[in-house]
Design goal:
Length: 335
């Protein structure tokens, strides 16, 4: 009789039901349970009345959140755990509910993974309307601001902009990084470059940050439009190149080289694969996410980024790993 490795079987079970945990978190965020608890609703009765839900079912959800260490429980009282208090209470500086909501929104795309693998095409894009839904766009840009907000301090500390006077934040979305870089470097002026319907929202984030005098927007398409000639001391391409294929990425980086002054730097911020293309795990999974959700996107390795930079004229290329699954790959324009 063969011995059963129960830990291996349990690993497969945990892997198979992993989406249970995601769905519990998604429901809690949609109900805004963590904010309710922060505001004084601590019992199953109080919470179920606040969200107009079944009390027994609400208790099950709350107990599951305790098991996930997102809540604590003493007798009949529920409280937020430290992580929930910091990141899941609406109105807190690093609130991540908007980003979690975005991941909830794209969950259905992952149910199409088999057909996507069979065809090699993003099935989720097949029936999308030509016009971008304003509500969906605001959800996405707000989500990108949420996840960027927890990375701004470490990113700004790792890039040297003390001598830079101009920064281009390419496809910068909410402009979170441009705003943070401008605040950290008083001499810096920044331009957030993105599509016309995006920069309308970007201006709201710039205004809220009170940096309208030093951070502006420019509408454009990074594949179709020029970024200028010898115009910038630094260009940030954060979470952009994973959307495109290698040919288009070389095209974007060539335009970055043209737009930089001599001595300027391009700063790529991405989830970088190792040379086996299997690790880190998040980058490998994210590559599938790009297959499912974009026309030609993927995660790429350091050697690929280096080759594109070298082919487009960049020198002194270096990599800096951040603490949050992502890395910076920086190249300089040296004439």
């Amino acid at each position: 009789m063969n011995n059963v490795n129960h830990s291996s079987v349990d690993y497969l079970v945990q892997l198979s039901c992993g989406y249970w945990k995601s769905c519990i978190l998604f429901a809690a965020v949609e109900f805004d349970i963590f904010t309710l608890i922060n505001n004084g609703k601590h019992t199953r009765k109080d919470i179920s009345q606040s969200i107009r839900s079944d009390e027994r079912a609400t208790e099950m959800l709350l107990n599951a959140l305790v098991s996930l260490e997102l809540l604590t429980k003493q007798a009949d009282r529920y409280d937020n755990s430290q992580i929930s208090e910091l990141y899941l209470v609406k109105g807190k500086p690093y609130y991540q509910g908007d980003f979690i909501h975005h991941l909830h929104n794209i969950m259905e795309n992952w149910t199409m993974i088999r057909e996507t693998i069979e065809t090699g095409k993003a099935v989720s894009l097949k029936d999308l309307p030509e016009e971008v839904d304003p509500h969906d766009l605001r959800d996405f840009i707000t989500a990108m601001h949420a996840i960027a907000s927890v990375k701004t301090e470490i990113l700004c500390s790792k890039i040297c902009l003390q001598e830079a006077k101009t920064l281009l934040d390419l496809a910068g979305g909410p402009g979170t990084y441009a705003i943070a870089c401008a605040k950290a470097n008083p001499q810096l002026r920044a331009v957030v470059f993105d599509l016309e319907h995006v920069v309308k929202l970007t201006r709201e984030f710039i205004q809220a940050a009170g940096v309208e005098d030093r951070v502006i927007t420019q509408a454009g398409n990074c594949l179709e439009d020029s970024f200028g000639e010898n115009a910038y001391d630094a260009i940030l391409a954060s979470n952009l190149l994973h959307i495109y294929n290698p040919e288009n990425n070389r095209k974007i980086l060539k335009k970055c080289h043209d737009a930089l002054r001599s001595g300027g730097q391009v700063i790529i911020h991405e989830f970088v694969l190792d040379e086996t293309r299997t690790h880190p795990q998040f980058a490998a999974l994210f590559s599938l996410n790009m297959l499912i959700g974009t026309q030609e996107g993927a995660s790429y390795s350091e050697s690929e980024y280096r080759a594109w930079l070298e082919n487009t004229g960049f020198k002194d290329i270096k990599r800096i790993d951040l603490v949050s699954n992502s890395s910076l790959i920086i190249g300089k324009k040296i004439l």
